[in-house]
Specification:
TIM Barrel, 12-stranded mixed β-sheet, 11 helices, 12 strands, binds S-adenosylmethionine, binds iron/sulfur cluster
Length: 334
């Protein structure tokens, strides 16, 4: 049964964080000063098992979820992730995707594909090693991420999308080289405006490079024109190269929020349901899953939570909202 929230938005898209751990320390997501050796990650017993995730995922599909994206932290640091994919791929009519930093993709691509994964999005913030290493903060080289993408393409995890977060003063100079390179490769590059997710990244409005600036920068060399969305509620605004050589996307949640069509729910690694990327608190589904509750009771609880949803954080964003308590990106995975 399709459910809608208080603003008449259905539930279509579920992002599942399978771990709060990561092998990178991106400065805009898990800065080293906070996510250091003593950081208290979720204890194993608190993390949903593959069986618990699959059970919840199936119940979500009863409510109209058509797409599941696995995320993290870094999803590929979760051991045997392909076994989860194999379980999820048994659910019919589901588009199953994964967002990864690409570090472990080359060695996992075949197993992921064989298990039933449809596509991958790979995050890469620059082709310049100096810039990229300064952003991932673990000295990880660009070439290894590109190898991961190649491997994904070879096994047919396509179309590959590449996510680039743009932070002012850090990687704007990488916008054009990235556009040129991935246009030639035929991968869809998506620019993400730097967001005030969580509290640890010290976000400031001035750090955001807007959709307009990104389009202007690329158009100066590679003229662009807008494209219609593929479907209602699509996150990225699409643009195509006027010469017909491909397209890019821009996720402009800061300068052009899209809350009015937001149909996404997020499930954290510890089984909390968040109805917004900027939510103050999640709804505990793990206790319910680990109780005697039937699928129907869990399903009713999800419908109750979604039915009360009022979230539209990005539309209301202002200097006053920046300091509100929020969940960290590494808990709900973007
Ligand atoms: N570790 C995986 C990865 O990096 O692809 C999956 C999780 S990561 C949190 C998901 C996406 O969120 C990545 O593309 C990342 O670049 C993006 N992201 C993280 N922090 C962000 C921020 N403050 N603003 C915008 N995007 C952010
Ligand atoms: Fe890890 Fe992804 Fe966050 Fe970077 S953006 S620290 S790779 S979870
Ligand atoms: Fe959806 Fe919240 Fe983002 Fe608005 S701010 S688009 S409601 S996740």
């Amino acid at each position: 049964m399709t459910i809608t929230d208080t603003l008449n938005r259905p539930l279509r898209d579920l992002r599942i964080s399978v771990t709060d751990r990561c092998n990178f320390r991106c400065v805009y997501c898990m800065p080293k000063e906070i996510f250091g050796p003593d950081y208290a990650y979720l204890p194993r017993a608190q993390v949903l098992t593959f069986e618990e995730i699959t059970r919840l995922a199936r119940i979500f599909t009863y409510h109209g979820v058509k797409k599941i994206r696995l995320t993290g932290g870094e999803p590929l640091v979760r051991k045997d992730l392909h076994l989860l994919i194999a379980q999820l791929s048994q659910i019919s009519n589901l588009d199953l995707t994964l967002t990864t930093n690409g570090a472990l993709l080359a060695r996992n691509a075949q197993a992921l594909k064989d298990a039933g994964l449809n596509r991958v999005s790979v995050s890469l913030d620059s082709l310049d090693n100096e810039v990229f290493k300064a952003m991932n903060d673990v000295d990880f080289p660009v070439e290894k991420v590109l190898e991961g993408m190649e491997a994904a393409q070879e096994v047919g995890l396509e179309p590959i999308k590449v996510n680039m977060v743009v932070k002012r003063g850090v990687n704007e100079s990488s916008i054009l080289p990235m556009a040129h390179y991935f246009r030639e490769k035929g991968y869809i590059l998506r620019f993400i405006e730097y967001m005030d997710v969580g509290h640890t990244n010290g976000w400031r409005t001035d750090d955001v490079v807007s959709l307009k600036e990104i389009v202007d920068t690329i158009s100066a060399e590679l003229p662009l024109e807008p494209l219609d969305p593929n479907y209602k509620g699509e996150v990225a605004e699409r643009w195509k190269y006027k010469d017909g050589s491909g397209e890019i996307g821009i996720i402009s949640s800061v300068t052009q929020p899209f809350c009015s069509t937001c149909n996404r729910a997020r499930l954290s690694a510890e089984g909390k349901l968040y109805t917004c990327l900027f939510a103050i608190k999640g709804h505990d589904l793990k206790t319910l899953v680990r109780s005697e509750a039937t699928d129907e009771e869990i399903s009713n609880e999800i419908a109750r939570i979604w039915g009360k949803r009022t979230d539209r954080y990005s539309e209301l964003r202002s200097e006053n909202t920046i300091d509100l308590p929020k969940v960290e990106m590494s808990h709900i995975g973007g």
